[in-house]
Amino acid sequence: MSVIKVAILGFGTVGEGVYRTIQSHAEEFTAVLGKKVEVAAILIKNKQKKREVREDVLLTSDFEEILELPQLDVVIEAIVDKEPTFTYLKKAIGRGCHIITANKEMFAHYGKELLELAKVNNVSVGYEATVAGGIPVIQTLRQLLKINRVSLIQGILNGTSNFILTEMREKKQSFAESLQQAQENGYAEADPTNDIEGFDAFYKAMILSRIAFGEEPDWQDVERQGITSITSELITAAEKLELRFKHVASISREGGRVVAAVKPVLVGNENPFYHVEGVENAVNVHSDIVGRITLQGPGAGMFPTASAMIEDLVYVCQSRSGERNIVKNTVEISETSKGEQKEYWLVQGLSNNSGVTCIDEVSTGINLIESSKKDLDLLAGQHPGICYFSILGEVDLAILNKEAATVI
């Protein structure tokens, strides 16, 4: 029986998960692919560290040794940073290998180039693990986009930020206390900037945009807001309105261009994100035929991420070439600018005489208002220190038990 030879770059949590899954699911690979899958080499940092791998596996800290193997079919990348990862994968493609990556930052920056290079070399690229861990969102989009036209994608794409918001609400903790808990649990790095400031979710959103719409927005135009401004007081005020904070990435086409944002929003119990808690991720896709579908599951961890990479291993081995042609999706979410539409907002820091119509003062210094984003942005420019968060969907004003709105 012929054999598919695989190299794994990195042997941390994800890399080890991939290796262990290949060993434990050998029969399944043979049944699906008609070939055995064997790990031929693993790229590591410290050759002195003892690792539980088969004796015939090459353990090396020199990528060139891997490229010189007599047979190499697939390179699975499970390391971090844009470089040397990008260089490694370019060389692997040049060698004629399929590649699989979980590196969302690298792929957001260089994915287009890698896909084009793979097409020239008649190999495939698997990148399911770059977005939402074990949730098969990329495979789902590929299937939908054969005929469906996607108009909007929204997602909770970062498990760390979702965990922090859940801890703040459930345990009545501060942001700092919840961040520390995330770090102690291994969900957040010592430097958590990428997670809590929305960079991680931003990179994932750009990858989804490329799949769903065939292009990305100008990165400088994307509204990116982290969760550091969310206080315990805001969490409590949201609960009074039966709402929950979620850090949501959204991508759509408006006015002939792709628009994206990554920011904290408020959702009610009718929203599919309302019950997405802890380190879970979820993606909500709106399309013209099937309507709205929601995918939910673990966003990180050894085996959820390894699962995505293993499914990609099957995908690239069964594909004849690189990325399928993506038809540029021109469907619009609406004909009017969302910035002009009035929405409900939870606002902290409004001063007297701001001229805003307040529906209710939910808590001291925290108000529920109705306004367009354009007007609220203008107001925030005139009154520094205002924090405001949009509410997705409807608000049950009956729970406020107020007779009339007031102007403050």
Automatic annotation (TrEMBL):
Record-linked InterPro entries: Asp/hSer_DH_NAD-bd, HDH_cat, HDH_CS, NAD(P)-bd_dom_sf
Its EC number(s): 1.1.1.3
Pathway it works in: Amino-acid biosynthesis; L-methionine biosynthesis via de novo pathway; L-homoserine from L-aspartate: step 3/3; Amino-acid biosynthesis; L-threonine biosynthesis; L-threonine from L-aspartate: step 3/5
Keyword NADP attached: yes
Reactions catalysed: L-homoserine + NADP(+) = L-aspartate 4-semialdehyde + NADPH + H(+)
Keyword vocabulary terms for this entry: Amino-acid biosynthesis, Methionine biosynthesis, NADP, Oxidoreductase, Threonine biosynthesis
Family classification: Belongs to the homoserine dehydrogenase family.
Protein name, UniProt field: Homoserine dehydrogenase
